[in-house]
Amino acid sequence: MDNPAFSALHATSPIDGRYADKTSPLQAYFSEWAFMRYRVRVEVEYFIALCESGIDALKDFPQDRFGDLRRLYLSFSDQDALQIKQTEKTTNHDVKAVEYFIKAKFEEWGLQRFEEFVHFGLTSQDINNTAQPLMLKEGLENVILPAIRNIMAQIGQKASDWAQVSMLARTHGQPASPTVLGKEMLVFVERLHSQLQLLQQTPHSAKFGGATGNLNAHYAALPHIDWVAFANRFVKDALGLDRYQTTTQIEHYDNAAAIFDALRRINTILIDFCRDVWTYISMDYFKQQIKAGEVGSSAMPHKVNPIDFENAEGNLGMANAIFAHLASKLPVSRLQRDLTDSTVCRNIGVPLAHSLIAYKSLEKGIGKLLLNAQGIEKDLDDNIAVLAEAIQTVLRSVGFPKPYEALKALTRTGNKIDRQSILDFVQGLAVDADTKNRLLQLDPKTYTGVYGLEPQRIRERLAQCGIEVSTQSPGA
To answer: What would the CATH number be for the domain defined by 12-120?
Structure first.
């Protein structure tokens, strides 16, 4: 290795190597540096909350130093992180190293008589199980959820642009009753909207209760304080989290598991989207914008592969595999705790990184889609037999005997059903003139149901899902 310093070329994982430019926003929330910074934040805010609780030994702490304390995490540097790591080499304990880092600052500031209230009465998990939910909460709010909403907005814009584009549907891979391309895009917006709502309703919960969850040390030292009320107030007001009331040494991770499962469902919907769009591209419903200099295939110069949707599908699958493990493993711990959650929790950023890579690929892929109206229309014209559903249903409504069987006999002859064969069949029906005329007017391009008759429904539903669209978008 010529350059001993870390670089993307030497990263073991592609999320910090090949895809580092896409995942870098997550470093502020899920890196080792970030974990230290969030731990410092919890320790500092806890100390400040103790000062504000009326403890006699802390009444003389100069409150004008609260700003200095908060700058320990607001201005947390690489040098600070390296100092903590150096201390950890001696302590062999990461949280204790954070405690000593803060205490060293107290000594620098001449405030050492207050330093034993840093990490007062706490166990490591009181810090970890507040820092990590906070990391997850803020990482989701600031990076992941905006990326998901951006994809929803992109798909929503396509739904609006294509609100009047009739296309052949396929059930079981076979030609089926025509639909509207915009409505098929709306399906994914609505699904994502529903799951995003469920995700946002799930609390970000924390554990804060001492070595076995009972605040033993707190009540032993200062029994006159209502420590449960203090803990509830601290976790809610200082950190913006919900505190579990009854715990072991660690949090239950039940709500964290619900969050991971919700993200997995969102990703599964996007996998479905990737596969549908990939298929539409293979059917020539979409072309893709090409960029000068790009190569589609190393062997076949004519190809423009749907690589963005394939990359997204692969990374969504990777993310979901890890989300599934997090959701099934973390809520399980022997007795009052074992350490298996510790190493697993350090990987929370990994599925989020794979998800973000996928979201960026989807954003790029959706932006490259070009509607091939001629290909879509040709598919409709080549499959006029799909009108059989409409014809037999109209005939049922006027009391025509066994219309399904009559259409089945026509459409399953083995011969190609074209417009003329449909016209000949209708002309030969013993029905009144109005019914016959209605049947003769049927066309695959207009046999699209409610969304064809009322295309504004698509934009109305997009608005209900919180999606604003431009009516001026070219869409093609």
So the answer is: 1.10.275.10
Superfamily of domain 384-443: Fumarase/aspartase (C-terminal domain) (1.10.40.30)
CATH 3.90.1150.10 applies to domain 125-217+239-371: no
**DSSP-derived pairing of the beta strands 174-180 and 166-171:** antiparallel
Instruction: Tell whether the model's pLDDT for residue 148 goes beyond 70.
Output: yes
* Alpha helix stretches (DSSP H) within 109-234: 124-139, 145-161, 181-201, 216-221, 227-233
The mean pLDDT of 96-125, rounded to a whole number, is 98
Asked about 297 being catalytic, the answer comes back as: yes
* Active-site residue, selected from the candidate residues 297, 397, 470, 473: 297
Please state the pTM of the whole predicted model.
0.93
Contact yes or no for 136/348 (Cβ under 8 A) = yes
What pLDDT is attached to residue 1?
38
Q: Locate tokens 């000594």: which residue?
A: 107
pLDDT digits (tens, 9 = 90+) for 70-81: 999 999 999 999
When comparing pLDDT for 454 and 475, which is higher? Answer: 454
Choosing from 172, 224, 298, 302, which is the catalytic residue? 172
> For this structure, is 172 an active site residue?
yes
Q: Where along the chain do the CATH 1.20.200.10 domains lie?
A: 125-217+239-371
